[in-house]
Amino acid sequence: MTPFFSSRLRILIAAFVLAAAPASTLFAQGDLESDWLPNTTLFFDELLPSRAAQDEAETLADLARIFDHPFLTNQFRDEDIDKLFEMAAKHPDNEAFFSPLIQAAVQPAFRDKVTPRLLKLAEDNPASRELNLTCGEMLVQFKRADEAVPFFERAFDVVRADPEPPSERRREYNANIAAKLVLIYSDKAFDQKRREDPKLADEVKQYQEKLRALRAEIASMRVFDAAPQVQTALIVSCAGDMDASDAESPFATSVLVPFNRTAWALRDEMHRLAETSLTCLLNRKKEVEEPEFPEPFRILSGLGYRSQVMAAALARIAEAPGDTEALYTVAILAEELGDPLLGARAWDRIFAVVKAPTPEMFAVCAEIQTEAKLYDDAERTYRNLGAMLDAPEAVQTKLAQLEFNRGNYKKALEMLQKAPLDTERLLVETDCYMHLRNYDKALERIRNAARITPALLEGRRFRLISANIADKANDMRYVEQMLAPLLTSRPPAPPSDDVPDAEIYNSLGYIFADHGYRLNDALEYLLKAVELDPKNGAIADSYAWVLFKLKRYEEAKKEILRAIELFGDDVDATILDHAGDIFNALGDKAAARGYWDRAMKLDGDVDYDAIERKLAAR
Q: What is the dihedral of CA 459, 465, 470, 472, to 10 degrees?
């Protein structure tokens, strides 16, 4: 099964072009006191042995500074990881190890090797607040919140025993642990889907009781009175109480706030906190590009609390007449909050306030309006931009893109005939032809885009998309030309383009298998994909499909059932269609019909007419 082909192809392109600058100069020769940063090989093979007799604390401080640098991503070796764990086992309370280990854990090549060892290290050291907090946050980042709970709880046990340690750094850890535990309990107690699931009623009730006991305990620990992240977490949990019961929170009125307030007033307090954060942000940093995400928003967003409270706080600032700096910040942060409509409203206010808007302002506004699906508004903004530039053709591709978004693919192609023949135009044409199922034209356009902008081929995602189009156009040579080089080298690319090797092996193997092309090679590619990502349902489906093509039907049956199990409720028509073909080849006509019937009711990249013909033949 190949990955879903994104129709928003051109959104990927800017990152590819901007990533072309080499980073090799960052790893020049030198020593630890210089401004340069050594790579992992230099650290482990040369610097660490040479400093073995030096003060251990100083070496650990260097370790933390070195591995906290983003350019060391993908620099780790297996032996480096082993050495880090060896050192961490001796010093489980020293945070210097956690940054490099987390960096390694988020890399696909190391995740399965590092994550279980890091979790085991935390379990073996329950009294390490830093290690257990790190593991809890890592699991939340990996969307494994259920598994994170015991790590946060163990970390809070340490806080109970040592609520106000002498180190300011450890007091900060204590506050973070208390805040995270409150928020994760709130997530379990007040999430709407969980509350509506009768199977989870007992668990939800249990977490509500644990949360209320925890809030009362934290409120009695005066050391947290001045900790903003803890107060934010308590306010949010009270808002969750209010949302769940549609009533005042007894805790909110009697414990959290010394004077009697209702839960609705607490929500106003949350608004005030968010507004204050943004005000401080604006006073500290006047430039509007890429502002820092205010800490209360970061805390809330990290565990899913991103909607009503934050949007309301931002909307209050967006309504402030004449405060253009605040409006700019709202417009930018709205995108991070996933609320483009809020951003579009902020831009409406900006244009009402600013007397002489610049072309750049029109361009940004139109992009946000497009993201908010306000296509008519975006069209007006782009036409105003074209008039301001006295060059209507300059915005022709953008106007065609709006027609594409409206579903008018042929009209978009007509409009593109008047646009400059550049990479952006070719990529929009690629999308249009893909939706019109003219795959030969789509392949021609994306190949021309790569000829005009060769840097596109440095992006793994771009190569993968190109291969998927070539698959549709039955051009196996171009599929291999795009993907095979990625199996032996990794072109430089931004983090957003970090396509794992398993996905490349899977795509190449599945495309070959689907076309009956070099099946033995396809089998080798997919065996490698399974080895790299054994719990990936799409890869299991691809492996089943190549086994089917090789007439190894019993093995194919085992793998397709595993794929269906891995996908669960998210299984799509493609996998069920494959299952029908496999069971039909085994002579189980009833099971085949059942899978095909289910496929007809679901979405997928399948030929539904062909499935109907198979059903009619039974």
A: 180
In the chain, the largest separation of any two C-alpha atoms, in whole Å, equals 79
Residues 76 and 111: beta-carbon distance below 8 Å: no
Residues of the chain under the 50 pLDDT cut:
3-39, 51, 53-54, 68-74, 246-264, 266-267, 281-282, 284-296, 299-310, 312-313, 492-496
Amino acid code (one letter) for 169: R
Q: Which residue has the tokens 């591995």?
A: 67
Q: What is the mean pLDDT of the chain?
A: 75
**Tokens standing for residue 395:** 């915005």
CA distance 337 to 297: 9
**Best CA proximity match to 164, nearest among 212, 112, 226, 105:** 226
Backbone angles phi, psi at 321, to 5 degrees: -70, 130
Question: In 3D, which of 512, 559, 516, 569 has the Cα closest to residue 538?
Answer: 559
Beta-carbon-side half-sphere exposure of residue 447 (alpha carbons within 13 Å): 16
Q: Is the dihedral of CA 230, 234, 237, 239 positive or negative?
A: negative
pTM above 0.70, yes or no: no
Q: With CA atoms as reference, report the closest residue to 317 among 326, 306, 308, 309.
A: 326
The CA distance from 421 to 429, in Å, is 11
For 314-439, strand residue ranges (E) read: none
The answer to whether the 51-257 and 356-452 domains have the same CATH topology is yes
Q: How far apart are CA 342 and CA 260, in angstroms?
A: 33
Distances (CA, A) of 264 to 154, 163, 214, 225, 304: 33, 31, 22, 21, 20
Q: Would you state the structure tokens that stand for residue 339, as one six-digit string? A: 């609320």
Amino acid at 158: V
Do 516 and 477 contact (CB within 8 A), yes or no? no
CA distance 26 to 435: 43
Question: DSSP string of 346-362?
Answer: HHHHHHHH-SS--HHHH
User: Residue 181, Cα to own-chain centre: how many angstroms?
Assistant: 23
Tokens read off for 409:
């693919």
CA distances from 441 to 424, 447, 482, 526 (A): 16, 10, 18, 29
Q: Give the model confidence (pLDDT) of 457-509 as tens digits.
A: 988 899 999 999 999 999 999 999 999 998 886 554 444 456 888 999 999 99
Percentage of the residues of the chain whose pLDDT score is greater than 70: 66
Tell me the H-state helices in 191-294.
192-196, 201-220, 228-245, 250-251, 263-284
Among candidate residues 337, 391, 409, 389, the one with its CA nearest the CA of residue 368: 337
Which amino acid is present at 484? A
51-257 has CATH 1.10.3470 classification: no
Q: What is the CATH topology of the domain spanning 356-452?
A: 1.25.40
The span from the CA of 152 to the CA of 171, in Å, is: 16
**Tokens describing residue 334:** 């709205």
**151 and 122 Cβ atoms separated by less than 8 Å:** yes
The candidate with the shortest Cα–Cα distance to 222, out of 264, 163, 165, 281, is 163
The answer to whether residues 444 and 432 touch, using CB atoms and an 8 Å cutoff, is: no
Q: Which residues contact 91 (CB under 8 A, 6 or more apart)?
A: 60, 97
CA nearest neighbour of 61 among 100, 28, 94:
94
Sorted by where each begins, the domain ranges of the chain are: 51-257, 262-354, 356-452
DSSP state of 253: I
